[in-house]
Design goal:
Blueprint lengths: L1 H4 L4 H14 L3 H17 L7 H15 L2
Length: 67
Amino acid sequence: MIKKFCFLSSAPAELLKAAMKELGLSARAYDKVLKVSRTIADLAGSETIETGHVKEAIHYRSLDMQR
């Protein structure tokens, strides 16, 4: 279901891959960031997940990791 509803074009996908390497995120964290990105896109009224949506989701995840 994630692959169906959370499709990323090349730019957002590259951003997420880079963040995974830099932050040391797990596959589970990748899925969570992807789901949050989809939610942010939905709230913005966007059909697709854009780079800004992924950036915002990564930011939320990095805040979560600081606790």
